[in-house]
Specification:
The protein is built from 7 helices and 10 strands. It has 228 residues and is of the alpha+beta class. The chain has 2 domains: 113 residues, Phosphorylase Kinase, domain 1 (2-Layer Sandwich); 107 residues, Transferase(Phosphotransferase), domain 1 (Orthogonal Bundle). Strands 1-4-5-3-2 form a 5-stranded antiparallel beta sheet. The chain has a 3-stranded antiparallel beta sheet with strand order 6-8-9. A two-stranded antiparallel sheet has the order 7-10. A hairpin with a 5-residue loop joins strand 8 and strand 9. Helix 5 packs across helix 7 and helix 6 packs antiparallel against helix 7.
Length: 228
């Protein structure tokens, strides 16, 4: 497949780019998941793995043809790159930004965010596979959200699918294209977090404890009765 490299700040070798192009040709969007890692390509360079995420739009526009979602996603790539750099600067546990890759393939223009690969599963997946281990992740999640609040960063799409949990129970926040600066009061931001978190849990039929633990441990509410 003919392609043109528009940007390669991640310094990915040409032979690996050809593998990415071949993978992209076969790529088909699978069943929609609640996950910030639903469009992955894992790249191995020597003794290190990297995660490539397609910069595409989702939400109510996720049913658009892929070439349209990818083109619109190029703007999202810029936002996510800047936000990840801020996360790394402020010590917030997020994938470490390594660069970007933008390709032009015939009429298709597609961008990738390249980060260090972090092995793990999302909190949404973990809540089904091992509920007790999922509950242990909330204290670490509280630490990361407090760091975001202290850095005046607000995640507009925080939900269990955008929380990555490693085997050591470390917590990483995903989907940094949804992060914006915010100087709203802490209480107002926590209310917004609870609303989005609860809506996602209900929509994807996730365990009730994900809501109650988020309210009690992360947001320090004595009960989540006010949400019902």
């Amino acid at each position: 497949m003919d392609y043109k490299i528009i940007s390669n700040t991640a310094n990915i070798p040409k032979d690996q780019i050809e593998n990415i192009v071949n993978w992209l040709r076969l790529y088909r969007r699978k069943t929609k998941q609640l996950s910030g890692r639903e469009e992955p390509f894992v790249l191995n360079l020597g003794d290190k793995n990297f995660h490539l995420k397609i910069a595409s739009i989702g939400g109510i526009l996720s049913n658009l043809p892929f070439f349209l979602r990818a083109r619109l996603g190029l703007r999202k790539l810029v936002f996510e790159q800047r936000a990840l750099q801020l996360a790394n600067k402020f010590g917030i546990q997020a994938p470490k930004f390594s660069g970007n890759l933008i390709l032009s393939i015939k009429l298709l223009k597609v961008g990738f965010i390249v980060t260090d690969f972090i092995p793990g599963v999302t909190l949404a997946e973990l809540s089904k596979a091992d509920p007790e281990k999922a509950k242990l992740a909330f204290k670490n999640l509280e630490v990361q959200i407090n760091k975001m609040l202290a850095s005046h960063l607000y995640h507009k799409d925080l939900h269990p699918g955008n929380i990555l949990v490693t085997s050591e129970n470390d917590v990483y926040i995903l989907d940094w294209a949804s992060v914006v600066p915010s100087f709203k009061p802490r209480s107002e931001l926590l209310t917004l977090y609870i609303t989005r978190w609860r809506r996602a849990c209900i929509k994807y039929n996730l365990s009730d404890f994900l809501i109650s633990y988020f309210c009690k441990i992360v947001c320090k509410l004595p009960t989540d009765e006010s949400l019902y």
